[in-house]
Amino acid sequence: MKLLPWLATLSSPDRTSAAADSTVPFPPPSSSSSSSSSDRSNSSETASTSTPESRGTRSTIESSLSLRTLPSVPSLEIMHGLPLSPESLHLSAVSHRSLTSIRPRGTQPITCLASHGHLLYVASAHMVDVYDAATLAHLDSFNASAPSSGSVKSIGFCHGRIFTGHQDSKIRVWRVAGGGSKQYRQVAALPTFSDRLRRFVLPKNYVTVRRHRKHLWIDHADAVTGLAVNDGLVYSISWDRTLKVWRESDLRCLESVRTHDDAVNAVAVAGDGTVYTGSADRRIRVWAKRSGERQHGLIATLEKHKSTVNALALSSDGSILFSGSCDRSILVWEECSVNHMTVTGALRGHGKAILCLIYISNLLLSGSEDQTIRIWRQCPDGRFSCLATLEGHRKPVKTLAAFQAGDGGLDIFSGSLDGEIKVWHVSISTPII
């Protein structure tokens, strides 16, 4: 996302707002929409009062809401039987096959898959298993001694460290042990003891959470549901409705921002540092640091989904945002002018809630509660083609990871709530750019 031209218009007095439209202008900064560590000295923060069970139901099933469609948003996908433009005739031929499947923890749900180099990281229950993505050889497992940490919900990587977000509201930091060992050892838990020590004395560093309890503002008060990494910073989101920013070099918490009115389920960060958060409140919010400021501020609120936002993904250059929701749609957001974002259309085809999205090699992969994976590609005329639908799971597809294959295709790993990981190979006739 090109942020500077947008920010240059924020102080313009003749800027107007549009309501209930697919084009969403950027609002002026609002101190009530976000609160950082420096802003909260004399204020309190109230976290979500919903239970983990109710949040899980909201973010995955929402059986009644997931039946809603978005009639006001035009479909972007190419429909069979409709006339194609010359630009759309140059479509890729795709073949795919299921290679194998693995069950790391029996029937324990797969909660997160993450790719890093040639390694696949698999989170199931409180454990993380590490595999060689090419051979599927099991290399190591870690966090075995901490079942009380709850399920691992997210995994991130930064400068040789592995960050894992947990149900118990902690972020744990891991590193491969030295001396030629391939084993992983925990080196820290966030917030660190030293970070707590330097803040616990001052009353202004405490915020009020549910049940009238107080926490240091550097603490998450509920499950850590997502992690994203960019330029030496780690961004974490939580069911406590906050976004926190951590510096990888010293593991200190730099900011805590109250982002939404309900649980935060998804986060994505562009290369220029623009942060996107998606929530059970049906909104996507855009955050960035304005020129000369040290804290993230609210740049835009994107409202088109009719239900919980479960997943976000960015195109390679950060100019297109994809959002997946319980309303069964994937919305495509693009810049339409220097100070506007617009929904250019919706990708439809899944029969139930969208649970995960990843973007790799100009392809968008989506996993759904309908137990399928779809592969999407944008055509030169701007419309999208569903290249393939991968079927075979017996429960919802919760998470996806992918690796570039030697033949120019992709090796796709899909994790399901039945504890199974399926491995797929997808070949595309035209080269992936």
TrEMBL record:
Annotated region Disordered: the residues are: 1-66
Q: Where is the signal peptide?
A: none
**What SMART domains does the record point to?**
WD40
What the entry lists under InterPro entries is as follows: JINGUBANG-like, WD40/YVTN_repeat-like_dom_sf, WD40_PAC1, WD40_repeat_dom_sf, WD40_rpt
**Would I find Repeat among this entry's keywords?**
yes
Query: Which Gene3D superfamilies does this one have?
Result: YVTN repeat-like/Quinoprotein amine dehydrogenase
Q: Where is the composition biased (Polar residues)?
A: 57-66
Q: Where is the composition biased (Low complexity)?
A: 31-54
Give UniProt keywords alphabetically.
Repeat, WD repeat
Ranges for the WD repeats: 257-297, 302-334, 347-376, 390-433
Q: Which PANTHER family match?
A: F-BOX AND WD40 DOMAIN PROTEIN (PTHR22844), F21J9.19 (PTHR22844:SF199)
Indicate what this protein is called per its UniProt record: Uncharacterized protein
| Originating organism | Trapa incisa
